[in-house]
Amino acid sequence: MEEDYGYVTKAKEILKAGLRYNPGNENLIIKFLRLDEKIGRISDSRQILATLKDYPLEKTWKLYLEGALLEAKSGQVKSAKRVFKMLLQNIDNQGSIYYEYARFEESLGNISRALKICFEGVCKTYRYCNYLHSRFWIRLISYSYS
């Protein structure tokens, strides 16, 4: 509510307080990351994401994915790539990671790299979700015609 009225700093303080009592809460962390993105300073978000190292990656991969997207939006290409690669090395059955990584590479103009990532995603995640599988195929076909 504080954010809705333009009190971004107060909203950030409230989220920080909530994270002190519940440090692994996915909803609070995502809200915090998005608020930091609005402000344009992501140093606090990096600190929050650094605290996740004590949690299993299978439970926190979505937060790391949000962190990679945040890094990408702020122009930290190397950091974003490093996080995406780490996620794919450890969690290779989540289509969302492949999809977002391919979109990221596409935004950089690396169409061949995006195509390779989509192909890997189709090969490794086809049995987990048909919806993402069809999104990968659509993305692959669009790359082949561009």
Strand pairing plus helix content: what structural class?
mainly alpha
Spatial separation of the terminal alpha carbons: 44 Å
User: Helix and strand succession?
Assistant: HHHHHHHH
- Structural Rg: 17 Å
Main pleated-sheet profile: none
Shape: globular
Helix content: over 70%
Contiguous runs where pLDDT drops below 50 for at least 5 residues = none
SS field, number of helical segments: 8
Q: Kindly state the mean pLDDT as a whole number? A: 81
Total count of domains? 2
**How large a portion of the residues is in β-strands, by DSSP E?**
under 5%
Query: How many runs of DSSP E, i.e. beta strands?
Result: 0
Q: Would you write up a description of this structure?
A:
With 146 residues, this protein is an all-alpha fold. It folds into two domains: 1-76; 92-146, no CATH class. 76% of the residues lie in helices and 0% in strands. The protein contains eight helices and no strands. It has helices spanning 8-21, 26-39, 43-50, 57-73, 77-90, 95-107, 111-125, 130-145. It is globular and about 45 Å long. The relative contact order is 0.08. The mean pLDDT is 81.
List its salient traits:
146 residues; mainly alpha; 2 domains; 8 helices
Question: What's this model, at a glance?
Answer:
The protein is an all-alpha fold.
SSE layout and pairings?
Elements (H helix, E strand, L loop, with lengths): L7 H14 L4 H14 L3 H8 L6 H17 L3 H14 L4 H13 L3 H15 L4 H16 L1
